[in-house]
Amino acid sequence: MGGKDRLQCFVSIGLVLQGEPYSFDMGGGFVPFRKDVEYVAAREASILPLVPHFEFVESPQRWGYKFRFGLFAISDHDMRLIAQAMQADMGLLHLDSAPL
């Protein structure tokens, strides 16, 4: 926080489960809302080579803007791009492994 180091990688992947968001006390007065996620084993992958191919990116120069708002839906196409880059099991993510 406040430093110059950047992490521009996907570090986990999973499916957001059904159910309403709920508050969770992280301590120190920080009580964010959460949704449960079923995570899948995967490797860290840089976002940078994927940016030009994402459907959710409106402007490649401002690709990070969408992430400022937390949870947002992405297409199966974008999920497959991320899963392939992370070497995640497509079946566990309910995706076909058809080439993009």
Structurally, how many domains make up the residues? 1
Low-pLDDT residue intervals, each spanning 5 or more residues? none
Question: Which structural class should the secondary elements be placed in?
Answer: alpha+beta
Q: Secondary-structure element order, as H and E? A: EEEEEEH
Q: In order across it, which strands form the biggest sheet? A: 1-6
Structural features, described:
This protein has one helix at 76-85, and strands at residues 9-10, 13-16, 22-23, 33-34, 37-40, 45-46. It has one domain (9-85). It is 10% helix and 16% strand. The chain is globular and about 45 Å long. The strands form 3 sheets. A two-stranded antiparallel ribbon has the order 1-6. It has a two-stranded antiparallel sheet with strand order 2-5. It has 100 residues and is of the alpha+beta class.
